[in-house]
Amino acid sequence: MTGPAAGAALVHLSARTDALFHQHFDPAFYREQLAELPAGDGIDPGPDPGAHFLSQGWKLGLWPCRWFDPLGYLALVPELRHMQFNPFLHCLEQGLEMEGHSAPFSRDRSWRHPDLRRFGCARQRGPLETTPVEYGPVRHVLRFESDRQPPLPKGRLVVQLHLYYVDMAAEMIALLARLPVTFELLLSLPETAVVADEEMISLFRAGLERLGAITLRRVPNRGRDVAPWMVSFRSELRALADRDLVLHLHSKKSPHGNYHVGWGRYLGHSLLGSTAVAAQMLGLFAEDPELGLVAPAYWPALRRAPNYGKVGDLCAHLFRRMGLGEVDPICADFPAGSFFCARAAVLRPFLTLGLEARDFPAEAGQICGTLAHAVERLLGQVPARLGLRFDMVAVDLPFEEAAHRPPPPVPVSAPQEADQRPGISTLCALAGHLDLDPGLAAVLGGALAQQQEEDELILVLAGACDALLRQIEARFAPEMAAGALRVLASASPHLAAAWNIALEEARGDLCTYLGAESLWRPQHLERLRQAALARPGTQVFFCGAGLPPSRATQLYAPQGAHGGGLAYAHRRALLDQGLRFDPGLGAADGRAAFWDLLLQLTRTGAATSLSEPSVAIAGSEPPPLPDAELRQVRVKHRNMRLCYGQDVPQIALKVPSPVHELKHRWGDLHLAESLARALEARGCRARVDILPDWYAHHPEDDAVLVMRGVTGYDPDPRHVNLLWNISHPDRVSREEMERYDHVFVSAYAEGGRVIGAMGARASVMLQCADPARFYPEVDLTGVPAHEVLFVGNSRKQRRWMPQACIERGLPLAIYGAEWQGLAPTRYVRGFHVPNDRLAAYYRAAKIVLNDHWPQMAARGFVSNRIMDVGMAGGFVISDHFEGAEAFMGHVVTCTTPAEVEDAVRHYLADEAARRDKAAALHRLVHLHHQVAHRADQILETLGPLLRRRKSQLRPPPVPGWDG
Questions:
Q1: Which residues form the Spore protein YkvP/CgeB glycosyl transferase-like domain (predicted)?
Q2: Is a pLDDT exceeding 50 seen at residue 449?
Q3: What is the pTM of this model?
Q4: Same domain for 477 and 620
Q5: For residue 144, with 0-12 CB atoms within 10 Å meaning exposed, 13-18 middle and 19 or more buried, which class applies?
Q6: Under a CB-based contact definition with an 8 Å cutoff, are residues 104 and 72 in contact?
Q7: CA nearest neighbour of 805 among 820, 787, 817, 819
Q8: Predicted pLDDT at 103
C-alpha cells in the first residue's frame, strides 16, 4: 500500500496521486455533503473522510470536492464503470487533460459565513437566501464599518491602475481615496484616449490627498490590464523590495455579457469598499508575513472557477519559463477579474519573463484563451511556490447595499459665495377644489419669501380649479408677474399628473416639494443650496428630522410617504433618468404615487441628510393606503423587496399538457407538482401552469421554469426565465436557449455540450423522483404482481422495448392509452394507473420496462420513469441511453430485442440479482435524484439572477386587479 491517503481504505495510490488527492479532496465539503443527506441514510465518514470516500463514498456517487461530480464523470468516461475504478482517482491520474469532463459539472454552491451580515428586513436563510452570498474559499471577512485600527504595512505601497475607460476616472479616484496610507500611482491609459496627460494627472492629484509620486504612460490596447504591469511598468515594479505591496486595479465594464454587470463594482468594493475595508486589507499583510496575495471571492457568474479553460498548455509553458517547475495539474483558485494586492515578490517571476506588448494578442473582445488569461490563473499558484499564501477576502456588507448606508450629514454652515449658485425649483400640486385659506396662503407665501433670484415656485392645480386659481391670482399677483410663482392647471384630477407637469416645467438645478401643510424653517432653501454646493456628487437630499428612513423601511410600508416625500430634494438631472410620478398608481390624492417616487429616488443610493432638519409637516398622519394600492406599489418594486427579504420568490412552472381534461396523462405534470411542493417547503410560492394557462397575468411572478418538452414558450423579460430541457432536445435550438437566463439540461453529455457554449448560464439537472409518492414501503394491497410491467401511452407508434417482449412471448403487462392495433389486447391490462398508485405497481412487479424517445436516448436524456422505479424500490430494464454509466450498473440496459429477451429471462430467474440491483438503484436515486435536490439546485441558481434584477422596476398591476 502506497501513500497515506489510502489509510483504512486499502487503496494503493502512487505518491503523485496521493499528493493530488490530499490537495484536492475537501474533507469539510465532504462532511457537509453527508450532513445534508436525508435522515436515515446512515452514512458515517468516521474520523477519516478521505478514507471513507476512497472505500465507499465514490461508489455512492458522493462528491470529493465542489468541482468534481463522479456520476457525471462516469457518464462521459463510461469504460470506468466496467473497470470498477474510482472516477476521481482516474481524473487525478489520467484525466486532467480532459478537464472539461469534470469542470462542467461543478456544484453551484454558495459560501456562507456568520460574519457576513446583511441589513434590511428579515433575512432569508438556506437555499432561498436572496441576499448576496460569496463563492470561493474565503478566508477573511472584512468589516465595512470597524473602529479597529489594524497595523499597517511599513513598506511602500504602489498602485498600478489601468484606466482603459477614462470616463471611470472619478470612480477609481473614489476607491483610491479610501487608502489609509500614502501611495505611489502607476497610471496607464490607452494610446487612443482623448484626454491630455496633464489633465488626467491634475484630476488624480486633486482627488487624492495621500497620493505621492505619479507616473502616467500610454499603452497599446493589448493584454488588457495585465500587459501594463508586466510590460509598461516592469522596471518600476522590479525595483521594489520583496515585502513592498502592489495594488492592481483597472476600470472594468465587462461589456460582453449582462451577467457581468456590477462585477467591477464588486471587485473594487471587496478591496477598497470603505476606509475600514482598505485598512483591514492592508493590515492582513502587516499581521501575516506568509501572506503573498489577496483578491476578492468569485463573482457569481464565475462560481464554477477555477479551471484552465483554453490556456492550460500556455500556463504550463509560462510556469516552466519562470523557473517554478510544473504547473498544478488542476487549476488552483485565482484572482478572477484581476483585482488584487500582492507582495512585490509574487509579481517578480512574471516580470522576469521579459514579455513585450507585441506578445499579447490584439484586443478583439476575447473572454478566454489569451496570454492575459493565463497570467491571471497563474497568479493563484505563484505564492505557494514562493512559500507564501493566496487568500480570498469578502466584505461583510454586499457591494449593492453599500450605497444605501446613510452618508454623513451635511453640516449647516453660513452661506458661501460660489461662481454659480444652483437654482431651486419648488414644486407644489394641489387639488383644484381647495380654497386659499390662511394656512395655505401662509405656506405659499413663506416659500416665496425664501426664494432668491435663481429660484422659482411652480404650482399646478389638478382638476376643476377656477375658484382657487382666481384666489391665487388675487393674492400673489406681484410674485406671478415677477416670474417667482408660476401657476399651471392639469385637466386630470390625479395629483401625480399635476406633480409631473411641475417636474417638466422645472428649470432649477434642484427640485424640492411643497405641500399644503409643509412647515419650512427660515433659510431652508439656502441650507439646501449650500448642501448641494458642499456635496456636488450627491443626487438626493433629506431635510426632515433625523436620518432618512432606511431603504428597507421605505420598501416595506408607505407610512408618512407623502409627508416624508415633502422633506426630500433632488437634482433635476434625475429627470433624464426617467424619474416621474406614476399616475397609474393609487387614488387621485397621489399618496401611492409619492411613495413610488421616494422608492425611485433612493433606488441607487441613500439620501444625504442635512445635519439640522428644516422641513416638517403639520397635521396628523393620514390613514393607511388601501390594500389594492399597497399591492400596486409593492409589485412595481418587487425585485428590491425580494432582495431585502420582505417577500418570498413566486415561481411559475410551465408544463406542456395541452388540455385540462387529459393533463393527468402527462408525467411532466406530476413531476412539476412534486417540484412545486418542494419549492414551497423551502419558502417559495409555486404554481403549476399547463399550456392553456401559460400566459395568464400573474404580476407577482418572479421566475418561470419551463419544463421544455414538445412545446416552446415565449419568455417574458420581466421574469427570471429558466429552461429545463427534459425531453425532445432536437426541438430546442441554441437560439431558443439564449432567450433564457439559465438552462438546465437533463443529460450529462448534452449538458456538457450546452455548458461549453453557454458557460455558467447552463448546468446539468437530471430528472428526479418524489419520495413522498414513490417509496419501497408502499401498500401493495390489491395491486397485481406482474412479471414484466410497462406503464406508458403508445404515442401512436410501436415502442420497441414492449414490442420486443411481445414478439418473444415474454409475460408483459401494459398499462396506457392508445395501444389499440399496436399490441394484442391480452397484453393491455388497463388504460391508466393513477400517479398515486404507480409506486405500488412498480414495487409489486418483478421487472419494470423503460424506454426513451430515440433522440433522447442518443443524447443522454434520462427518463424520469427510471427515477420513479428506483425510488419505489423496483427493478428496471431500459433501452440503452448515452451516459447510462452514471447509474453505476444498477440499471440494466439493452440495445437489441435479443438483449431484451436475454435480460428479462435472466432476471426473472434470479430474484437475488433483482433484489440487489433494485436496492442499489434505490440508494443511488435516494442520495442524488430526489425532487428536493432539484429544488435546491433551482434556488441556488435563481438567487443571483433575482439579485441582478433588484433595481429594475416592474409594471404594476392594473387598478382593480385581484390576481
A1: 799-940
A2: yes
A3: 0.87
A4: yes
A5: buried
A6: yes
A7: 787
A8: 46
